[in-house]
Every structure is written in structure tokens, then in C-alpha cells.
Amino acid sequence: MKFFCTTILILLMMLITSCGVGDSPEVAFNEIQNAINDRDFEKFSARVDTEKLFAQIYEDATVELAKNCDAFKQKYPKDPYFQHDGNFITEYNATHRDLHLNFARESMKAYFAKLPEPDEPRDNPYAYVAHEFDKLRLVSTATVEDVKIDGNSATVTVKVEGDGSLRGMFIGVLTFKLGFEKVGDKWTLTKIENIDELTPTLVDKAELIWINL
């Protein structure tokens, strides 16, 4: 779950710090940014299919985590999640899928609801994650590097960079390829297309950010 939640955390941070101009996918990207800034869930959900997005991230990440389990086992011998084989990860994630997806939903709701930051993460993990996101967005910037449109699908390539603070260095430099779909006359974010490329780096970040939970 920590990999999945870290991915969602960084994705939302990237969206809020980005700025889109010009054609339709970038306009959609910009509207997502404004919705997050304004904590307007209605406008956010109009541009982000969270159910499809979260499910895609979870399923694609499970494939990559299982495939690379041996490498992560050697790198993180104290993490019990990786001290098995790929079949275990596949089965474990399938068993806990609803629980993990619900954690992402509730953390997102906590952000838009402006829940107070808990004294300890265990007091309200959802609000804790929401506030971590809020802190990360303040130390990060993102740049749209490329937009490719193919009919009713589009890929927006975004580079996100952290500043020189500890949290900024945690972010580092990441490149996301965001998949948008056009339904009617509206572009909607539905997927991250390069989970396979991002997985090793995001696992490293997950191991750092969740050690206190």
C-alpha cells in the first residue's frame, strides 16, 4: 500500500504545481490544478476519473512489483512485503485491493475536506497523508514538456522537480506520462502510462516516506 499511496501523493502534488496552456489536454490539466488549489472536489472529479486512475495505477504497479520482487527483496531486507516471491505480491494485492483503494479515496477526501493535521499519523492516517501532500506541493514545481494527441487519447509528459529542502530532495526529479481520454468535448485524466519506468524510483521514495506509519 505504501508504494500505491506514495504514487498518488506525488501525482496529486504534480498536478497542483503544473500549469497548462493551449490545447485541450493542457486546459484539462490546468483545470485540475485550479480545482486542487481551490479544494473544489466537484471540479476536480469533472476532470479526473479517480476510480479508473487509481485502479490502473494499482494494477500496473502490482505487475511491476511482482516482476521485480527479487531486486526489492535484496534492497529492502527489512520490509516484510518483499520477503516473499512475485506470486505472494500478486495475491496479497488482490486480497487487499479494496482496502488499499479505499485508503486512497479517503485520503483524497481528507484533503478536499481540509481535515486538521493529526498529532500522530496513526490518529488519522487519511488526514496525515493529505497534509503530507500539502507540504510537498509547496516545495515542488512541474513543467509540461510534451503533449501528443491521437484521436480521443492524449499523453501529457510532465517533469516534476523538488527544491533544495528535505522534502524537495525527497521528490527529486520525476517524469510522468499522463494519459487523457476525450469523452464528448471534455478531456479527462485516466491513467499514468509509464508506471513501469517509475516503479523503482517510487519504491525507493515509498520506503522513505512511510517509515513512520
Instruction: Pick out the low-confidence regions.
Output: 18-23
Cα-based radius of gyration, to the nearest Å? 17 Å
Elements, N to C (H/E): HHHHHHHHEEHEEH
Name the helicity range.
Answer: 55-70%
The rough form would be described as: globular
Mean pLDDT: 89
**Strand order, largest beta sheet:** 1-2-3-4
Number of helices: 10
Q: What composes the largest sheet?
A: 4 strands, antiparallel
> How many angstroms does the end-to-end distance come to?
12 Å
Measured by DSSP, the beta-strand proportion falls in: 15-25%
DSSP, total strands: 4
Alpha-beta classification: alpha+beta
Task: Give a written overview of the molecule.
The chain is α+β, with helices and mostly antiparallel strands and 213 residues long. The protein is 57% helix and 18% strand. It has helices spanning 2-16, 24-37, 41-47, 50-67, 69-75, 86-95, 97-112, 125-137, 166-171, 195-209, and strands at 140-150, 153-162, 173-183, 186-192. The protein has a 4-stranded antiparallel β-sheet. A hairpin with a 2-residue loop joins strand 1 (140-150) and strand 2. Helix 1 (2-16) packs across helix 8, helix 2 (24-37) packs antiparallel against helix 3 (41-47) and helix 7 crosses helix 8. The protein is globular, with a radius of gyration of 17 Å.
